[in-house]
Amino acid sequence: MSQYVPFDRIVDKYEIAGTGKVSIRDFLSIIDEVGALQVDTAPILLDDDQRESAKIFIRNNSDFTVTRDELKSLFFELTGQKPDSIRMQSSRRIRDDKSMKNGLKRREKNDFMLFADGLPSAPYQNTNNIGYLTPRAASPVNPVGHSTPLTLQKPGNSVRLDDTAPMDQDSPVIESLVERIQSQEELLRKKDAEILNNRRQMEHLLEELDTTEAEYKNCLSQAKLWEKKCRESMQESHNLANQLHTVHVEYEEQASKLERLEGILQDFEKERKFELEKLSQQEDLDGSQEKLIRENHSMRTNLTKLQLECDRLSRLLKSKTATDGVRPRGLTPRFTQTSIQECLDITGVPSIGSIPQEQQLVSNLGLLVKELNDQRLIIEKLRRLRHSNSNAHKKSSWLFSSLQSMIPFGKHSYKHYIFLSFFLIVGLYILCLFIFKIGLFYNWSVLDPFQPKDTYVWPPS
After folding, report:
1. DSSP state of 151
2. Long-range pairs for 224-230: beta carbons < 8 A, 24 or more residues apart
């Protein structure tokens, strides 16, 4: 009665403590141990080519560790048999750990040879993995292909499957060997098919690797392009920062010029106010002079009327004296020396003494004409003085007239224009400063040169 090989118990001895995994270096030892426990009529698990390829793969990947399930899958792919379905003769038992380890060491020392009768190992193949194997030639027995027909070599002779030498069919050893060779040939067909499949998968993986490499190169070129753009952006940000600093310096210069211009305008405004006050005082003086002239003229007119009335009265008295022959005493002197003298005293006319009345009237008329000429000359002088004052006012306010002519809008005065320009400049400065502070707060990349390290001091303006 036969039972299955205890594959799990064999793997437990090689399992790394606490990980549930087995090193790939123990794979051939596990296969040898399973092959030692299987029935005698069962085919070998690995031929020499497969074993040599497995050695090379293990030597190149000695750090790999696989789980129990992965180990079973690898066992099935290499041998074509499930590890839990391999039968073991009932008379055999699993050897103890010490004897198995000694046996494994002997197998490793003898290059993992399975048969004691000396089946020769295949020559060394320059491969790095199990899938890289030499294709086998197709044959009627093996449609997948094999390099050469399998031979059973013994010391001194060799037996081929295609030889027609007579054999003793009753020999149980030969029958077991034939069955074993046939099963091994079937296993090789499966392995060749698996190898071809692995090659196709490898080619597919190589194509994917080439595609991935092309994508990587494309990504690398894009990264270099973005790096170049980033450097250009940084250079542009440095240029913008320099421009901002230049604008700040120009703004300070314009602000200083504006302050000087405001001082000049204030001085001119004070001078203009002084000229206006002087002109108003001159106008008041002219008005008072004109008022005095009008009053003087009215007094002169009244004086003329009085003189004419006196002349008429004198003529009337003369005519009456001539007719009556009597000269009224005290009437004419009282009239001429009281009423007329008072009027003449008011106007500044010389007093009437012993001068006759006719001569008095003639002298008064001459004085009146002289006074009128003097008043005319005074009026002309006042007009010339007013004209000269108006010319001086025009000369002193030439700056204001030129500023008014420069205003583009006729509805606004120069003051409105100056204040509007001042408020516009101040508003633009406040807006730029506000945007600059926001950029520093949110760490804009454009303003990285302006980020404070320890302290940041503006350059002197």
Report:
1. E
2. none
